[in-house]
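In this section we turn from sequence analysis to structure. A common task in structural bioinformatics is to predict how a protein folds when a small molecule is present, because the ligand can shape the pocket around it. The inputs are simple: the amino acid sequence and a SMILES string for the ligand, here fe (ii) ion. Study the lines below before reading on.
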Amino acid sequence: MFTIIKDCSPYYVLFTYDGITDYIKELQSIASKAEFVVSNNKSVTAIKEVLPIYDTEECYITNPEDLKIVTGNNPCVNVLNLDKSATFLTTLPKVRSPIHIDMNGGTNSPVRFRINYPVFINDDKCITRWYNSDSIVTHEKVSYVIDETLSNIKCIEQMHFSQEYAILFNTTLPHMWDNTQSINKRTIIGMRADKDHADMTFDDAKKNLFGI
Ligand SMILES: [Fe+2]
């Protein structure tokens, strides 16, 4: 059912399936009428302390009809026990994230993988990079952010989102997104395992989706 387009394990797997084009159109339609606000949660505030240019916009999908489409028309939700909530995230022009691993702020536990979908990809200039885990020093103020001034970091994989494909994303390896070379926003949606399946790893998810 799921077809691998590009396997860059352990960093990411680009994949597709029947119906994904219509699903992405549904995401676009919901995002078009949604009201985005500047992200303002605890982790955003913490990141801004170490990287002041960091800024994102987001929209929690709260309308039950919309949420039903986003989680109900997505075959990965049942296969991977994905959380039945969803948030659009917009990356702003000229902005980058710090190098980090993903943490669930509510449970203070790692997010081991995400299934990411492109919503509005306006160019190929927003680059996602993964880094070597050796010689990484975490920031003294924010435990999930890498201190780039102290760490001996080396980019080992990079990609940009296409408008067509979903991505199984390994969020436990140090990574970042860099939209500093773009004049456009980029909107994606990223779904994680629900709280009862938070231990499911990237490799587990890959096996469940693709059998390998
Ligand atoms: Fe991340």
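Residues 20-33 form the longest helix (14 residues). As an exercise, try to locate the residues that line the fe (ii) ion site and compare them with your own expectations.
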